[in-house]
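## retry 2 of 3
previous attempt timed out at serialization; input unchanged, resubmitting
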Amino acid sequence: MILLRRLLGDVLRRQRQRQGRTLREVSSSARVSLGYLSEVERGQKEASSELLSAICDALDMRMSELMREVSDELALAELAQSAASETIPAPVRTFTVTSVTGIPEERVTIKAPKETVGVAAA
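## retry succeeded, writing output
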């Protein structure tokens, strides 16, 4: 199951780390407790829109940028999840075989093993 709070937290953490800032610096600037910001970044707490706005302001990031990144990650996660659960029908091949014992031709159907499909995130 894909959790939106986890994707939001991942994007916020990456943005903070790109800026070389600590949790303490951002939590102070956003006026949110260090522990709560940590839980948001780890996807353990659902952040309200007001809290997300304060964190985005502290990171000098637009809310639309945050949502765009989260949307992109969500799309990739959904694609990977659907590819992993998709059942690919095995190809069926029919061959005509002549028996050594003189029995007339008989048809044999062979099912190939299922193929696996991998999805790589860009």
